[in-house]
Amino acid sequence: MALHFELVTPARLVRSEDVHMVVVPGTEGEFGVLEGHAPFMSTVRDGTLKIYRTEGGQPEEIEVQGGFAEVGENGLTVLAEHVEG
Amino acid sequence: MASLKELKGRINSVKSTQKITKAKQMVAAAKLRRAQANAEAARPYAARLATVMGSLAGKVTVSESSPKLLAGTGKDQVHLLVVANSDKGLCGAFNSNIVKAAKLRALELKAEGKTVLFYLVGRKGRAMIRREFPNDVIAMFDTTDVREPGYAEADRIAAELVALYDAGKFDIAHLFYSKFRSALAQEPTEQQIIPVPAPTAASTGGAVDYEPEEEAILAALLPRYLKTQLFGALLENMASEQGASMTAMDNATRNAGDLINKLTIQYNRSRQAAITTELIEIIAGAEAL
Question: Which of A74, B51, B157, B231 has the fewest C-beta atoms under 10 angstroms from its C-beta?
Answer without folding.
Answer: A74
